[in-house]
Amino acid sequence: ACWAFSVIGTLEGQIKKKYDRLVNLSPRQLIDCVYLNDEITSGNWGCDGGFEEPAFRYIKKYGIMNESDYNYNDDRVYKCKYNDTNTWKIESFRIIPINERQLQKAVATIGPISVAIHTNRQFEYYKQGVYVNEKCKKDYYSLNHAVLVVGYDHDLSSGYDYWIVKNSWGKDWGENGYIRMRRNFNNMCGIATNGLYAEL
């Protein structure tokens, strides 16, 4: 369900930026409801995987509820319990050109960006430091995990530029739930291959 958390993260960032409100939106609604065979929003498989674009299309059409109104659980029975009271909608969503400089500009001027990356066992066992993986792939069809890019910086000890990335595996993973991924390293793991954000 990483795709749902990634999409929710970029939308929450846009709401904070535009309205100065901190909200907690419902990833579970996306997991349950984007699973439906709707010609506009279909294409995802709940906790078994999915894409960000159908989730954005769903939010544009139906809206997204607060998490307090649609709580998260690990149930794999996908029963959509959406109602249209107290929802947030988007005007559209944008796809960032495949370029790390464009992604950096978007993070700096727009806010958190939903991205997909290619991961393997090395990523799963990440603990700390700037993550470098020369074996991960960067083409669109190899991307297998959605995360949220929230910032970027430079590490003096290694000399590496890096992305600050929020994962959806809880605070016990990585650096309190985050990973620093090497930046300006030939689009490592495809981090700039499929960046998206919501427009309110």
From TrEMBL:
Keywords: Disulfide bond. InterPro entries: Papain-like_cys_pep_sf, Pept_asp_AS, Pept_his_AS, Peptidase_C1A, Peptidase_C1A_C, Peptidase_C1A_papain-like. The keyword Disulfide bond applies. Residues 1-199 form the Peptidase C1A papain C-terminal domain. SMART domains: Pept_C1. CDD domains: Peptidase_C1A. GO terms for biological process: proteolysis. The keyword Acyltransferase does not apply. GO terms for molecular function: cysteine-type peptidase activity. Belongs to the peptidase C1 family. PANTHER family: CYSTEINE PROTEASE FAMILY C1-RELATED (PTHR12411). This is Peptidase C1A papain C-terminal domain-containing protein. It comes from Brachionus calyciflorus.
